[in-house]
Amino acid sequence: MEQTFIMIKPDGVQRGLVSEIMGRFEKKGFFMKGLKLQSVERSFAEKHYADLSSKPFFSGLVDYIISGPVVAMIWEGKNVVTTCRKIIGATNPSDAAPGTIRGDFAVEIGRNVVHGSDSVESARKEIALWFPEAPINFESSIHSWIYE
Fold it and tell me: Is 48 a catalytic residue?
């Protein structure tokens, strides 16, 4: 089983979209292995977005992520990284298909509601950063109803 990191950004938290977003991943058949509501310090946000530090929007992105609480999550399942990215939708909400999280809830690229790891390697790094205590290790009783 693969794991991914998903973060509901401050706009998603402030708008009361947490349960709706979590529900989409649960309904797909993925299993939550970690969950935190937290405020993000600037240095931590800079570390999380270090790969974007040379981009002109980096400072604004960091300011946005530290502007309010976020919900950090670990989700597990087959092909979870790719599938969650499809559920989330395109980074630019105007390119995101209806039915995706961003297609349904976001208007501006700078307020696009949710972050999802873009690769298995990124997921490993992000999970290690956000969940140094490691994910919860359990198998849901409905696992066999979802996976062969």
Answer: no
